[in-house]
Amino acid sequence: MSNSSKRILVTGGAGFIGSHLIDRLMAEGHEVICLDNFFTGRKHNLVHWLDNHNFELVRHDITEPIRLEVDRIYHLACPASPVHYQYNPVKTIKTNVMGTLNMLGLAKRVKARFLLASTSEVYGDPEVHPQPETYRGNVNTIGIRSCYDEGKRVAETLAFDYHRQNNVDIRVARIFNTYGPRMLENDGRVVSNFAVQALRGIPLTVYGDGSQTRSFCFVSDLVDGLMKLMEGDCLGPVNLGNPDEYTILELAQKIQAMVNPEAAIQFKPLPQDDPRRRQPDISLAKARLGWSPTVPLAEGLKRTVEDFQQRIEGVSPLVAAS
Ligand SMILES: NC(=O)c1ccc[n+]([C@@H]2O[C@H](COP(=O)([O-])OP(=O)(O)OC[C@H]3O[C@@H](n4cnc5c(N)ncnc54)[C@H](O)[C@@H]3O)[C@@H](O)[C@H]2O)c1
User: Fold this and answer.
1) Distance 29 CA to ligand 1 centre (A)
2) Is residue 134 part of a domain?
3) What is the DSSP letter of 280?
4) 228-284: per-residue pLDDT in tens?
5) Most-buried pick from 111, 215, 254, 310 (CB within 10 A)?
6) What is the pTM for the complete model shown?
7) Residue 112 belongs to what domain range?
């Protein structure tokens, strides 16, 4: 290992974003410890590192304390999609509050730098577009998304209080919708829903009239932003996302055209508390981290659909993805 290599803890490292982050950290020659309870993460995402002596995979629930010697903590552990974080909302709150307390306590004890994977959901259903970090949000405290939104808001508060009170060196990323290979097929997120439905030849489900917008950041861009934030001098919170805004209907049509022009589009009622618009203002990330996303939606979708296609058996090849 080189002198600059570090011992890095990634909580939630067996999940979608965490496993891509670990791929990059391992490729850079760091020693990586992954903590995961495998609720939404899979060993399969890390199988290629299991025999590497720089890598350690520990089955651990972060709501329980743990003692480790590390230089950096990327704190990602928390189910990220509504179907999973609403499955056991009390557990989601525990993960965000007790889990984050445990990891900040560890960072304090061993003087590790701590990065929190927060979320654009802290803005709730925003009244400001696009959302800058100074926007304080419009969050329902008692809705079905609150276990996640409010959980992350408390996690941010904890990070800043540990910083002010105990000098813990913190970084806070507010991550916007991220997509890419290794998303779960059943996570109910819009990209995975459309990709899986199109590959299976069943109608693509659009909630509402599809005019609500989202921005989509490819996972390699996001990982790049997280690493720049960790190694830079900006504490945050910093928005990390792709500011290109698409309506949900546009996204459905893109995936339909790419995978299966025969698949129908079906409209269903909007779920409770579904935000109308969500778009990051990434001026701060550009100025302080020198970061902006580079992977266009068409290219990212192609790579994502190919990954789903490999996992779903008995599907026809991509029609128009050459
Ligand atoms: N994917 C996105 O679009 C997005 C957007 C905003 C924020 N984020 C944040 O980024 C982080 C990673 O998201 P993801 O998309 O990779 O989600 P994911 O569900 O794929 O990964 C989360 C990982 O955390 C693990 N985990 C959950 N609870 C745990 C606990 N109590 N103890 C130990 N491990 C636990 C899961 O098993 C999983 O491996 C999350 O904190 C999420 O809130 C993601």
Assistant:
1) 24
2) yes
3) B
4) 999 999 999 999 999 999 999 999 999 999 998 888 999 999 876 676 777 899 999
5) 215
6) 0.94
7) 7-177+219-240
